[in-house]
Amino acid sequence: MKILVPLKRVADPDNANKVKVNGGKLETTGLEWKPNPFDEYAVETALRLTENGTNPKARQGEVVVVTFGPKDTETTLRAALATGADRAIRVDAADDALDGDLVARALKALVEKEKPDLVLLGKQAVDGDSNQVGQLLAEYLGWPQATFAGSIQSEDDKSLVVGREVDGGTLKVRVTLPAVVSVDLRIVAPNSVRGKHTPPTHAYADGVRFAALMAIMAAKKKPLAEVKLADLASDTALKIKYTGFELPPARKAGIKVKAVSELVDKLKNEAKVV
Amino acid sequence: MPDFFDVSRHLSPEERAIQKEVRAFVDARVIPVVGEHFEKGTFPLELIPQIAQLGLLGCNLHGYGCAGLSEVGYGLAMQELERGDSGIRSFASVQGSLVMYPIHAFGSDAQKERYLPKMAKGEIIGCFGLTEPDHGSNPSGMRTVAIEDGDSYVITGTKRWITNGNLAQVALVWAKVGGPNGEVRGFLVPTDAKGFEARLIHKKVSLRASVTSELILEEVRVPKDAVLPGVRGMKGPLSCLTQARYGIAWGVIGAMHACYDSALDYAKNRVQFAGKPIAAHQLVQAKFAEMMTQITSAQLMALEVARLKNEGKLRPQHVSMIKRNNVRAALEIARTCRDILGGNGITLEYPVMRHMCNLETVYTYEGTHDIHTLILGQDATGIAAFE
Prior knowledge:
A: two-stranded antiparallel ribbon; B: alpha+beta; Butyryl-Coa Dehydrogenase, subunit A, domain 1; Butyryl-CoA Dehydrogenase, subunit A, domain 2; Butyryl-CoA Dehydrogenase, subunit A, domain 3; seven-stranded mixed β-sheet
């Protein structure tokens, strides 16, 4: 099975306090970048589907990772190559010249060229939280989609049974390949992914795998191609216009109440919650 | 941790990726368990296959399944491991620098094939037997002897303060051939050989998440091909120590990192006097200014020595300087951070006192602080003050 995994780098959410707004624009210099966690889960899922978990070094399929961005986003791609992805594509574009729809349209063109059996991606990026690309891409391709996958079971790589987390339980849907699947947090639990090549008794370590140091060194020799955005999308106009950014207001200091009766009074009459 | 001079700009993309990966591993797998192991006085055995799988064992060696990292990459890997615990870094230092390195540098092809791939995979653990109960800073006075007998050597002696001793399948034992005035050679001794015994050293209050042993060899017979053919004399063990000390000098920056971050976070949140965090007080700020300077100095020295090592211009005295300087700085920083944390600093809820206790050992092992002082003193004056 051949799987295409679109990846996005995001500003490290642990350093959100470093984000600055300058003249209505986000200041990105000096920010630390890391892969969008849900996209990392998608890479992990793709690797589990294309290997025998008891011998992960022997690849049983192909995982191609793709990202959109300037040259330094290649770090994100190299990290995915180090964990086991087979090759990478960078679509050259400036960060602020992209939106979800343009990425989905460019990905459509890339899918038509690469012809993967499956596009796996994170359910959303943790920066903009737009949650659009997977759904738009499936629509543009006319492919079935399953979003928020918490489990995936391959049926001989011809179709997938995808467990979707919904309110109050798990909804199982069967999608015929080729398809677009977006993944949620629980997809990296030890038994969430049942690939064709891995014995059902095999349990993975929880979470995404660590890249071996040797694989990090070897990743720089794996193929990484550069594609121009204009070669994938004739119309690069953005449909989403950002009109401004502002930081959330600083939290106001709390107050101390003198007695329980005062607290109850405030809860009743000010907060109106009791 | 401060990177005041932005030294990370000198790192290659691969070196950054290595640091990030080992850091993530230590955050996920080492830090959550190491405090409890320290308290119980046990080594986290479950980490050995994971550390091996990551490629941390002998990671600056080339071939034989080793990762072949640059010297900076190796230093960063040790640094991130020691951010977890000096005991975990010591495990990797002994395996990589004190056993795999000499086999790689001085071993026969057969020894390399037999040991290195399995040691990189963590399937064979090694220990390094140089120090003796009565010979610490002066190892050349060792009493352990290897007597030739037909096609074997018969080794007798006692080694002490041996990290990994009770975990090891193979011990690299340094002994004098023929008698007390003989030449020092290194012997690869299987720990299941008849007459070989490893005794665990108990009651440690430092490096508690590390196995420390005494090795007793009573007429242990090894074949002639157990000797490392490529080196004779004290140059053998001393060249291993140069490798390990290099890793230590980088490693302790990780311990500084853990202590500094913990203390800074605490100082910003701990409110005393007039509703101000203690970080707003001048005496506390003076401590951070000093620590930041010490850390920056340690980072710069380590990086410069890595460059000398890559260029093949490294002298053991260079390593003496960074081992001496960086370990002293780390120990002082750990003590200062313990002070900043007040009473909370003495618990295992915070990493600081664990690091502080560990660093007392690191200050002493692999050439004590004072011995490195004398090495530098000799380098400056041309006069040896050892005797």
